Amino acid sequence: MIEYLHLYSLAFMLVIYVIRLIWIMRFRLARDLALPKGSSMEGAIAAMTTLFRPWSMETTRKGFIHWLEFAVFHVGVAIMIAMSFVISLAPQWLTPPVIAVVIASQAAALVAGIVRLVNRIRLPQMRAISSADDYFALAYANLLFITCIPATLHLPVWTEVFFILVAVIIAVVPFTKISHYIYYPFARYFYGSYLGRRGIVR
Amino acid sequence: MAEEDKELTQRAMEAFKKRLTRQAVASLQVCVHCGQCAETCHYYLTSEDPRMSPVYKMDRVRKVYKRTVDWLGRVAPGWVGAQDLDAELLQEWVELAYGACTMCRRCWVNCPMGVDPAQVLGLARGVLTELGMTPKGLQATVNVHLEHGNNMGVSEADFVDTLQWMEEELQAEVDDPSVRIPINKPHARVVYTFNPREVKYFPHLIQAAAKIFNAAGEDWTVSTEGWDATNYALFSFDPVAGHQLAKRLEDAVNHLAADVLVMAECGHGFRSQRWEGENWAGHRYPFKVMSFVELQAQYIQAGRFKLDPTRNTKRVTYHDPCNQVRSGGVVEEPRYILRHTVMDFVEMEPHGVDNFCCGGGGGMLSMTEFAKARIAAGKIKADQIKATGAQIVATSCHNCLDQLMELNKHYKLGVKVQNLSELVAAAIVWEKKG
Known about the structure:
A: mainly alpha; 9 helices; globular; B: alpha/beta; 4-stranded parallel beta sheet; about 5% strand
């Protein structure tokens, strides 16, 4: 039963997300009326793919280690979310090579997550912008990476703990900073279409 | 809270909510506090003060958003760092939104999420303007422009006098009495504008522009009804004043029935009229708006005049004005011009869309109370220039020009700062018409 708990949370999250989408669409869209110099669509496409092209942006070019950290962390999150389905709904997929990939990804993501948390606490410029929500999101993600490994191995108690943690975070996500990914396409689209329209495509 | 403060914050909140567009909300929601923008900001890089990172500055505004609009911030403000707006926070907005951000958008183009801190801080600027809290120098510039038709209060007689004087100077320079600066000529193809600083302090730039137009055989004119290319309401985020100022030029072009409005080498002026004017007006112009930089590049490409780059032998580097390069799309044209007009053009690093702000953007030169921080933040630009070994720094914006001249003096760079048109005019091989 506990394996299905996160599915209920997921349903709740989807409802909240739909409400969130309707909510943001209710804000006035500022339009650019001037004659375009370039293509807003071309700009939007470029903007959506920037994260996969770390050489295209100074922050990711110069801060390549930071980008790598970001990539490892988010791949870990994606695999962890996938595991919350696979463990309960398709355990037959958990072959030894898959388990090895899961363990490696979660361990790497945990390292990246710890580095991020330490930097947030250690660096004055990061402390100055951090709220409880920021620390919580990172700490909680790290906890999920830790519990995902024994849950993938079907160790008793750990599996239950993992599913409870997943259920809680899924329900909480739409209200916290973790909801950034629902707004990410909006922000990137606005960024890309604005620059693209004005003839600036990176 | 005193009754006066309550009323102030109530007005501020009304102005704040009115300005929340979908784009601004996306920026306010999506920021994950990764802090990467710190490394892109000239204020942070020169001070290493955590309060100077774009995300910190933006967060002063986001706190209010979180407290009043965001779901979680409304019920658990402490959890997300939400805060009610009060007189103290409004004062902090003045110091950070006006005093520590040039709206250069370098952080935006380098944000992995697409967060636009300048837009959010611009929102704060707009709120402060509505409350009458805009720094006096900036507001005075807008007011003088609204009252006199140009931001330096130049009279029509002085303006016409200067044009005629420069016409005579140009005739003497090229030894050709047929060259003209046509005033209020109906049905000319092009209406050209000036920055009032050119009329007051840099009239040789009028001469340079006139030389280029005459050499290109352009059908052009200048309007006495509207000629000031600047629009400081862009910096105070006042769409009403912005529209009023932009409308003067719109009316001038319409009354002369011209096809193209060409904006002088003025970064924010170009952006205001080319990209924001129609948004403020709520309709499209029946004519085209372009930058003089774009037009000069077109002339060169079309072979409208002969150029001799050996007349500009010194090493030249180019400073990209933020409003042209990151908000206006004029990226390649200045480079094309320089490659054809000077012998030794060298890029500063970084350049183009990644170029640093000189520190003179955002109306900063009109706000003397922030001058010390402006010069300190300009150190990045001074270092960029030094590294090129250039003797001339070319740019295409008057605010940049003024700031670069101050940096030149302060950091003892030993360079000459020039507009692109000066270099183009100097390279023109004059051919007598007819």
